[in-house]
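Researcher: Here's the sequence for the chain we discussed earlier.
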Amino acid sequence: MLYFCTIIQTKNYTMSALNDFLTLINGHLWGVPMIVLLLGTHLYLTIRLRFPQRYIFKAIRLSIKRDKGSTGDVSQFSALATSLAGTIGTGNIIGVATAVTMGGPGAVFWCWMTGVLGIATKYAEGLLAIKYRITTKDGKMLGGPMYAIERGLGCRWLGIVFALCTVLASFFIGNMIQCNSISMLLHEGYHIPPLYTGIAIALLTCAVIMFGVKGIARVCEGLVPFMALFYVGGCLWLLGINHEYVWPALKLIVTDAFTPHASTGGFVGSSMMIAMRYGIARGLFSNESGLGSAPIVAAAAQTRNPVRQALVSSTSPFWDTVVICAITGLVLVSSIMADPSIDSTAGATLTKVAFGQIPTFGPFVLTMGILTFSFSTILGWSYLGEKALEYMFGRKARYVYRILWISATFIGSVTAINLVWNLGDTCNALMALPNIVSLLLLSGVIVKETRHYLWENRLDEEG
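Model: Thanks. This is the structure I predict for it:
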């Protein structure tokens, strides 16, 4: 008995030590240098591509228009919906609340700015995804940063590093954490046992991913617009309740973003630098611009040339950060102005309190938002990880991956996964680094393609 107790204690100590080590590593990986690198890449590409943000409305029109006769596995809208499914998650709700709690109202402005600047990086990622994608023997499209790194830079080993980190991150960030969030939410709010939740998620996931990218895309193109409209509708309802505070909240968000001293007026003190730190970090993590996940899906899109899909891809940070994160931030700031007593409330609890202002229906809106955001993330990341594994081991590996993926949804629902958060953050950082390298080294190719198709008005030309 003493022997087994010793083993358990040793195991707990080892897990705790590993968690502490990863926390230390992530403090460096996701510290100021990484934020500067990501934001610097956004700025560099924005300037070099002559501010592609100005084409956002053209890009939105292209995203809902089928590019008939073009090669690809799914429509441009389906690819965008699947990409958004993997991007929009609990970070859009709870992550923004954490930014407001830690960084003050000004954090919302800086979060929004990362979405605006991230449009250029998502554009570049989408362009390279189509430029360097390949067609398999059975006519399927494969692409993403690993192919751009191999075919554009001639560096397969770095492509393998990216693919490996993508596979690992898919299980941590895209699967187990999302399942655990759903399980905890249903258990705490509705007393549903995690076992039942795990079985339900596993069955639903199995029913979708066994049909491959077309099955995932069909579900996502219906689920993503619904969940976004449903959640935004709830936010607009809250803004209606606090309508007299909406304009003051907007002014406070902007002024606090450039206030060098601690903010006042019902908010925990925060300086401009703290607001920038938390706002930029939350924005970067939310829209995933520069991470390299979205181009894997973009490569499957039906499009006649790389720039058309690049424009469609660029709308992702607009919807994710400029719209959803921004409206969440406005709801939270206006709610705090309406009731200053909730200012010191922690991130997740702050969101619950804010949505609790809607009689009866409020908690349901928040629950549905988190449920749909989390489940869509599970579907979106399943495709990303599968294609990354296929890059390393070939097409047959996808069947093993799908079995492991479905199993992980159940495990994530019924177990405590504190260590998984740190593992996921580490893998995400190791994904971002080779992707950013490829974006910077291949920026000349991006400019050349953009000049030919966009600046010289040849968007309808086959490429």
